[in-house]
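Task: encode each sequence below as structure tokens.

Item 1
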Amino acid sequence: MKITTAEFVKSAFAPEHWTTDGLPEIAFLGRSNVGKSSLLNSLLQRKGLARTSNTPGRTQSLNFFLINRKLYFVDLPGYGYAKVSKSMRGDWGKMAESYLARRDELALSIQLVDSRHPPTTLDIQLHEWLTHHDKPSLIVATKADKLSSNELKKNLENIGKVFINREVISYSSVTGRGRDEVWQAITAAIEN
């Protein structure tokens, strides 16, 4: 997809703050520090549109980005970061689950996992929740450029053993690896 416009629209902390124009939405989910903001910027070929940080747990709201005035990317808070309070982690989880369960405009959930590590318990729980609730989803293994070809192949096989019968796309925000495949999945989802 050719990106003509990509703009940050709003941060939402409650359902009444969500967008209301009915355009399809693509949600990006994953644990803190998995590279969601880097992936968003890479997909959109924009530096700094989604703020990246070396400090996990920075995204505390649902962030809506309008793409080509045709669809939204929605960056959800990361999960699993230990240095925030339990109540704050619980609030983030409720906000994300409410969005995922109730949002009719949600066309696809893109779940990010770190290609360098086995999926965490929280990664598995999110995948099971999406599957149980019959939500269209895609698994993307980020930071593929940080591994050798052999390590990446082995790790993708191991990730595939956890997420059985699911395609896992390897992605690098640095090299652009996997970008076309992710866009193909997004385009197919919004056309359905």
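Item 2
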Amino acid sequence: MNNLIAIIQRFHVQFLFIGLMIIGLVLTIKQKNYQKVAFVNSANSISGETFSMVSGMTSYFNLKNVNQLLAIENARLRGLIPSSLEKINDDYIQIQDTLYHQKYIYRVANVIGNTVTRQSNYITINLGTKDGIEEEMGVISSDGVVGIVKSVSENYATVLSFLHPNSSISCKMKSSGIYGHLQWTKNKIDEAYINGVLITTKVNDGDSVVTSGLSSLFPEGLYLGEISSIENNLETQSKKITVKLNIQFNSLRKVYVVENLYKKEILELQNAQEKLDGK
């Protein structure tokens, strides 16, 4: 109370001036129709601009929720595209659910940790075992392959980034269908190379590079990048094919964890065959 009295005593002149100004403004508006109309119009203009600004700010802060909903819908739609479905009947094509079995499930995850400047890079996502995430699941973004899940806790998972010397993606060149393995060059975060292609193979500069579908981790046809240069290595009798990656690793925000519903069956069959060959 003493503080309030002290403030009034200190600023009583200012308070008096503001009070008289308000009284004069009210009297002017009541007596003069022009001033009244002008005041109302000004007030409406100010309130309109204020509401517009508040609405804009609200929309901006809602973008996070909107983006999350779009990412979830995108994951659902990815599970319905032909590369995520396995055809049962090869004799004819009908757009009916009874002819297809879903092959892949996509889960939306947020990137909460990401390194791009080290020799061995990792990514951390906010999904874990409680969300159905397991080791050796593929991770992609809307622009290409991100990496492979390597370790999982209840709420989080660590992803072996493609920007890692141990990462390799089974790929193919879109126009020719030639297979190879895509690996990071270790020099630039947007550059990789394809190995395993014989020197006699015809390769088109500028050709698109996509996932081959030979791996149980990723669907076929995911765009990876474009061939930027081709060199012949006479010593190894192979081609050095440099690829400009489509994905921007230093700006990853949302990714999709890919679950192949047939992976366990495929791996069991492959392991059984390897045991037979070993005998």
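Check on item 2: The first strand starts at residue 85 and ends at 87. The first helix runs from residue 2 to 10.
End of task.
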